[in-house]
Design a protein that fits this description.
By secondary structure, the protein is an all-beta fold. It is 2% helix and 46% strand.
Amino acid sequence: QLATPYLIVPLNNAQFVCMATSFSWTSVQNAASYSIQISEDEEFNSIKIDSSNIINTSFFIAPDEALERGTNYFWRVNSSNGIETSEWSVVWSFYTDNLFTIFPNLTSPEFGYPSTPIPTYFNWDDIYICQNWSTEGYVIQISTNPEFTNLIIDEITYTSQYNTSNLEYGTTYYWRVWAFLGSINTDWNFGVFTTESAPVSNIDIPLQSGWNLISSNVIPEEPAMESVFEGTNNIVLVKNGAGQIYSPAFGINEIGNWNVEAGYYVYTNGGSILNISGTEVNPALQGIELNAGWNLVSYLRNSSMDIQQALSSISSNLIMVKNNSGGIYHPGYGINTLGEMQPGQGYWIYISSPALLIYPEN
């Protein structure tokens, strides 16, 4: 008769055994394989794992097959030579680690910090899933509300840090992180912070005598057209794509406020420079809705860019682009006398169907 294996680890009545762990026992002479059973009760009426034909004297529970945390289990092993099977070993018990209710310790941004810089760097402490099993990765979520129903970021990362520039200035954000290893997850840990106020930016737009087609990548501190053009010499008329005008000499303002997404015609009777102070736009976050047909739009980046790359977000809808100097871009005919899009200039864009224009990041 085949001998019964002796259990080795986990030790009988062991505490804080990892949910993904190894079991081992002594070898039996003439045995060809072994079977292991792990149950939630000593009578083995509620068997969690029942594995046979194990050639080695050990058995590993992988992370994606992990046991429940904080649970008492019982285990036993027998041997077989293919003809006869030994009696089950003595039953040993163990208790799985219940400390994995811990969560990553968030280190930055500090909780409630009122002036968090952009770009924003998120950091937390690495943690271990009982014994020496380190986490496989982390999930980070960033939202504008504490219910996390308006997610700005929902990403998996395999390091204990995450960086992003895609946050708005002067905005309160809520963030949380949990760790995972296979099917094992920690609880969330939560943080909250407010981003710094937007730095004051300036753009100088040169105006030549006659008609100019301009735009701005800076949202004016005082957006009324009277305020935007205050102190700028030689302004005769400003006109938007809808035909509305601003005439300082006659006190007419049909346009109202400056729209950072729009381009404007400006007529002057002499050279001048229009200076706009305010908040620089993040072009990747400021989508411009375009209608089918002609649209007079702004260029929102703070540096020039090849027009094909700049308008890649609407390439499937784009028919033609024009600037004030007579340059055109017509991809269908392979015509490009426009070259690069320039900060401070406005552009007419003709598209075949409605689209959302999103410029690449600065």
